[in-house]
Amino acid sequence: MAKSKEKFNVEPFISSFKKGQFAPLYFFCGEETFLIDEVVDALITHAVDPTMREFNFDLLHGNEIDGKKIVSLASSYPMMADRRVVIIKDFDKVKDKDVLEAYAEHPSATTTLVMIAHSADLRKKPYSVFKKLGIIHEASELRDYETVAWIESRMKKMKRTMEPAAVQLLFGYVGSSMRELLNEIEKVLLTIPEGSVITAKDIERVVGVSREFTPFELSNKIAEKKVAKAMEIAERLISSGESPVGLIAVLTLHFVKLWKLQDAQRQKKSDQEMLRFTYFNQFALKESLEQLKNFRPGEIENVFVLLAEADLAAKSSGDSKLIMTKLISEIVSGTIVHAEETAVL
To answer: Does domain 154-206 match CATH 3.30.9.10?
Structure first.
């Protein structure tokens, strides 16, 4: 297993999980929670049978459990499965955590216990015991050069190509937060055909210096049904020369994603199965699922009709601001708004 001072690498964990190899204990800590979330999500996917999840999976937070209860859960046998998984977030808030020392020395062979904390004093117990046993894995924030390498690695994993200047510009705009970087990468990929190299101009156009007024934020605000903010963003974009055809194209892609997620929900797919629709971005999935709550069954199909009508109007050289105002109003209200009833932006 990785030692606490080694560079945190997601791939060895995921590789071992795919082979059915799970340690009885893991303790994750550090500022880069995105990496920890990736590892834990992969563990749940490969270690927990979805059909028996109710009986063999526990996810608790430190402020709602104590050390004795954790030991009790971890010592329980799995039901009709080879393994049970117990995950404790905010482990630093657990009371009486010292009782985990004895358990760590002789853990259950049929349980994988995962403890997660933002930070921990490794000189104190039980962390010093965890460190001695080699179960501590620290995910520190990436340095600048590591962030650039991570972006390049992520693009390779997605089977896409981003030119070096684009990588540097993306890092310059966003910084080293992996979660935010992946959000911006997802936006870029929505506008670039597969097989095309992502250039610095693409990054500048999509990410931009002001990330508050972008076609992607417009999509989010419309899906969140925040009409005032959506109108403000649309006005700013149209006034700065954005084509309504381009905006409608981005909106269409956004609602296609929501439609796929809604269909997956109907089929009772797990969050892990739905992650592929958001480029395996956990935060984007959570955000999208929240947006879905704003749409009744069948309403998204109606949105596609509205988008098609708006696209036709835009390509017929209609009034850009009026087209976007009408479209936003109709999507947010869920009703058809006639042009003469709609105020111009």
So the answer is: no
* Residue 338 CB coordination number (10 Å): 8
Confidence of residue 295 (pLDDT cuts 50, 70, 90): very high
CA dist., res. 103 & res. 22, Å (int): 17
Is the full-model pTM beyond 0.90? Answer: no
Helix (H) or strand (E) holding 222: helix 215-223
The domain spans of the chain are 10-138, 154-206, 215-341
Amino acid at 160: R
Within 134-206, residue ranges assigned H as helices are: 144-157, 164-174, 178-191, 200-206
3-state secondary structure of 41: helix
| Topology alike, domains 10-138 and 215-341 | no
Dihedral-angle region of residue 159 (phi above 0 means left; psi in -120 to 50 means alpha; beta otherwise):
left
10-138 fold: Rossmann fold (3.40.50)
